[in-house]
């Protein structure tokens, strides 16, 4: 399986389903922020128009105040204008000052409009995407790498924000600029305007070429930076292995290699970029020189063959100032197109994620699960991970029932399917065949929150959220009193060590917090389940990480906890489950034995052998069991290999 996915390839499967992502973005999220959009747009137009005024007034000043022409302003009746030169100067200066002042106001409202438009949308998109994503079924998270999902929720959303803010802002600013300046230049002198605009198509052509060339180079850069990050992340995670295996030099060389790939890819892109921008400058410079020469000849009245003409010095200055401002925006359009394309790809990925269907779908007629006795029945249940019909069946024909209040233990070698059976009960996955019922209600007919509320689950892999110990115990219950929390912690044999932490129940744990041992984490998770007081309890190797002594102590509390509660327990240490009402022995995804501890010992099958090994009565399992386990193992490995082969 490749770790360093090119981000363009991520979610290829779902991207195809997303039509017109940008249109959808505006339809679904833009509408709510229409006010900000309108403010941004109107202010952009007004600010630009005001920006374009000063050179025009400068031209008027040169020609009429300092020159010979009559003082006149566009759209203003002649009778309103002052006669005296000083009056004209003050009026001109006044208009220019007002243009700057009002312009500054519009610049502010423009930025307010675009920024709030972009910020609101990025916030809404991110929270919506997260909300949809966390409701997807577990298969999805097993398939996708965390990094991929993080990159959508952070990079892609940020890229959208950048486009909505900078991109759209620049787009309108530049469009108005180009349009406004063209109108002014053509109305002043259309022939010189044509000459001044000669570089425009040339620049447009080169910009297009530049984008075509640079785009794949940027893709290379992104992919190599991804590889570099994966390598660094992997090495930092495995630093202990690197040290103990004495492979520092080997790893340094590997980092050197990927860093060099990144260097090469980046340099290739930089090389193109640093040639392009001076090139643009050259073209616009040539245009400038051309306009200057022709304009200057016209001002002084020198003939220039077929290009002869005339021009006032004021108009000449205005032309020079406007062409300067005109050329650069043309080159920036390329960047905006680039931003748009990236935003397009990002919203494809975002909507692709949002549109991913969940395999676990709640029946529209589902009703809240009402647990009375807590009787659970597995009826001929079969299941395999993965969507494909040919996916290997992991558990087959599982049939057993548990009366309300009983404790059932699932026992068997690793990989037998015990956890899978429990995940089906939690409806992390739906059964392929058969049915699971709680008090006669098929799980698929109950609402998902009510089902999860009824079940308490403590697994081998305990996860603590960043926060205090108390918050972690309370997680999912939320309105518990400190007293109840302490009570639950005591039952889970966690109270004592919690009290010894620097801040007791207020000690921060989890990432960046106090590090707890595996056993301590398990006890907190157990306290969480005890506090929740669920109708049905699932303990999947819940005490595997605690020492035997603590386990014995916890066991006493657990006995109280499970006395009148339907409980499923998976445990390797068989001593912890020998008192269970029922023991179901799984091997190879099928039930091979069932009964009580004593009954199973008498049967002298797999359970009896496992028990004998743990009790130290025999040294190892008889050949037949070991052989079966080995066969199973190699089959799993072969499957995994075949799957990896498919991915390459
Ligand atoms: P046990 O709990 O008895 O050790 P599991 O139920 O965890 O066994 O696993 C049973 C089989 O299912 C194993 O072969 C394992 O590789 C496979 N398996 C478990 N989880 C997944 C998954 N998310 N996707 C694919 N295969 C899985």
From TrEMBL:
<feature type="domain" description="ABC transporter">
    <location>
        <begin position="376"/>
        <end position="613"/>
    </location>
</feature>
<dbReference type="Pfam" id="PF00664">
    <property type="entry name" value="ABC_membrane"/>
</dbReference>
<dbReference type="InterPro" id="IPR011527">
    <property type="entry name" value="ABC1_TM_dom"/>
</dbReference>
<dbReference type="InterPro" id="IPR027417">
    <property type="entry name" value="P-loop_NTPase"/>
</dbReference>
<protein>
    <submittedName>
        <fullName>ABC transporter ATP-binding protein</fullName>
    </submittedName>
</protein>
<feature type="region of interest" description="Disordered">
    <location>
        <begin position="629"/>
        <end position="648"/>
    </location>
</feature>
<feature type="transmembrane region" description="Helical">
    <location>
        <begin position="174"/>
        <end position="207"/>
    </location>
</feature>
<dbReference type="InterPro" id="IPR003439">
    <property type="entry name" value="ABC_transporter-like_ATP-bd"/>
</dbReference>
<dbReference type="GO" id="GO:0016887">
    <property type="term" value="F:ATP hydrolysis activity"/>
</dbReference>
<keyword id="KW-0547">Nucleotide-binding</keyword>
<keyword id="KW-0472">Membrane</keyword>
<keyword id="KW-1133">Transmembrane helix</keyword>
<dbReference type="InterPro" id="IPR017871">
    <property type="entry name" value="ABC_transporter-like_CS"/>
</dbReference>
<keyword id="KW-0813">Transport</keyword>
<dbReference type="GO" id="GO:0140359">
    <property type="term" value="F:ABC-type transporter activity"/>
</dbReference>
<feature type="compositionally biased region" description="Acidic residues">
    <location>
        <begin position="638"/>
        <end position="648"/>
    </location>
</feature>
<dbReference type="GO" id="GO:0005524">
    <property type="term" value="F:ATP binding"/>
</dbReference>
<dbReference type="InterPro" id="IPR003593">
    <property type="entry name" value="AAA+_ATPase"/>
</dbReference>
<dbReference type="Pfam" id="PF00005">
    <property type="entry name" value="ABC_tran"/>
</dbReference>
<feature type="transmembrane region" description="Helical">
    <location>
        <begin position="280"/>
        <end position="299"/>
    </location>
</feature>
<dbReference type="InterPro" id="IPR036640">
    <property type="entry name" value="ABC1_TM_sf"/>
</dbReference>
<dbReference type="InterPro" id="IPR039421">
    <property type="entry name" value="Type_1_exporter"/>
</dbReference>
<dbReference type="GO" id="GO:0016020">
    <property type="term" value="C:membrane"/>
</dbReference>
<keyword id="KW-0812">Transmembrane</keyword>
<feature type="domain" description="ABC transmembrane type-1">
    <location>
        <begin position="38"/>
        <end position="342"/>
    </location>
</feature>
<keyword id="KW-0067">ATP-binding</keyword>
<feature type="transmembrane region" description="Helical">
    <location>
        <begin position="89"/>
        <end position="108"/>
    </location>
</feature>
């Amino acid at each position: 399986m490749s770790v360093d996915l090119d981000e363009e390839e991520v979610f290829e499967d779902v991207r195809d389903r997303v039509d017109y992502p940008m249109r959808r973005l505006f339809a679904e999220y833009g509408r709510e922020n229409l006010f900000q959009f309108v403010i941004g747009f109107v202010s952009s137009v007004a600010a630009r128009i005001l920006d374009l005024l000063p050179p025009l007034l400068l031209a008027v000043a040169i020609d009429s105040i300092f020159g010979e022409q009559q003082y006149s302003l566009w759209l203003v009746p002649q009778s309103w204008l002052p006669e005296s030169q000083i009056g004209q100067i003050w009026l001109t200066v006044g208009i220019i000052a007002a243009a700057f002042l009002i312009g500054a106001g519009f610049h502010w409202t423009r930025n307010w409009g675009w920024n709030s438009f972009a910020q609101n949308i990025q916030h809404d998109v991110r929270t919506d995407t997260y909300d949809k994503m966390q409701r997807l079924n577990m298969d999805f998270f097993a398939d996708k790498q965390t990094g991929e999902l993080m990159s959508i929720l952070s990079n892609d959303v940020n890229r959208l924000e950048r486009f909505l803010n900078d991109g759209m802002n620049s787009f309108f600013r530049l469009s108005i600029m180009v349009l406004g300046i063209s109108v002014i230049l053509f109305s002043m002198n259309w022939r010189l305007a044509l000459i001044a605009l000669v570089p425009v198509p040339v620049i447009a052509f080169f910009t297009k070429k530049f984008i075509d060339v640079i785009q794949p180079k940027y893709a290379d850069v992104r992919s190599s930076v991804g590889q570099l990050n994966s390598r660094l992340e992997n090495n930092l995670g495995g630093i202990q292995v690197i040290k103990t295996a004495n492979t520092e030099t080997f790893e340094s060389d590997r980092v050197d290699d990927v860093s060099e790939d990144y260097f090469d890819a980046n340099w290739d892109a930089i090389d193109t970029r640093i040639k392009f921008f001076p090139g643009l400058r050259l073209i616009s410079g040539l245009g400038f020189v051309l306009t200057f020469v022709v304009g200057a000849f016209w001002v002084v009245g020198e003939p220039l063959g077929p290009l002869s003409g005339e021009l006032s010095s004021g108009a000449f200055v205005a032309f020079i100032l406007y062409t300067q401002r005109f050329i650069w925006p043309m080159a920036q359009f390329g960047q905006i197109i680039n931003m748009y394309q990236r935003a397009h790809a990002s919203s494809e990925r975002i909507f692709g994620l949002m549109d991913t269907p969940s395999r676990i779908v709640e029946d529209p007629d589902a009703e809240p699960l009402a647990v009375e006795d807590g009787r659970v029945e597995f009826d001929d249940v079969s299941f395999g991970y993965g969507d494909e019909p040919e996916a290997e069946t992991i558990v087959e024909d599982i049939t057993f029932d548990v009366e309300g209040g009983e404790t059932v233990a699932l026992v068997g070698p690793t990989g037998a399917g015990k956890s899978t059976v429990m995940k089906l009960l939690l409806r992390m996955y739906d059964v392929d065949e058969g049915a699971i019922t709680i008090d006669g209600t098929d799980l698929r007919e109950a609402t998902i929150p009510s089902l999860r509320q009824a079940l308490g689950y403590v697994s081998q892999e305990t996860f603590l959220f960043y926060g205090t110990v108390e918050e972690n115990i309370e997680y999912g219950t939320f309105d518990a009193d400190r007293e109840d929390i302490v009570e639950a912690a005591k039952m889970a044999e966690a109270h004592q060590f919690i009290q010894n932490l620097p801040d007791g129940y207020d000690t921060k744990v989890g990432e960046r917090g106090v590090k707890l041992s595996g056993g301590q984490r398990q006890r907190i998770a157990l306290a969480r389940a005890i506090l929740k007081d669920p109708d049905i309890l699932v303990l999947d190797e819940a005490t595997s990480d605690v020492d035997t002594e603590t386990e014995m102590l916890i066991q006493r509390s657990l006995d109280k906890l499970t006395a009148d509660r339907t409980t499923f327990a998976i445990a390797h240490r068989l001593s912890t489950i020998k008192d269970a009402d029922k023991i179901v022995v799984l091997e190879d995804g099928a039930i091979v034995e069932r009964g009580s501890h004593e009954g199973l010992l008498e049967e002298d099958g797999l359970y009896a052998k496992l028990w004998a090994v743990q009790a130290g009565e025999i040294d190892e399992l008889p050949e037949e069991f070991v052989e079966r386990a080995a066969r199973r193992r190699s089959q799993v490995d072969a499957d995994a290999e075949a799957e990896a082969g498919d991915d390459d």
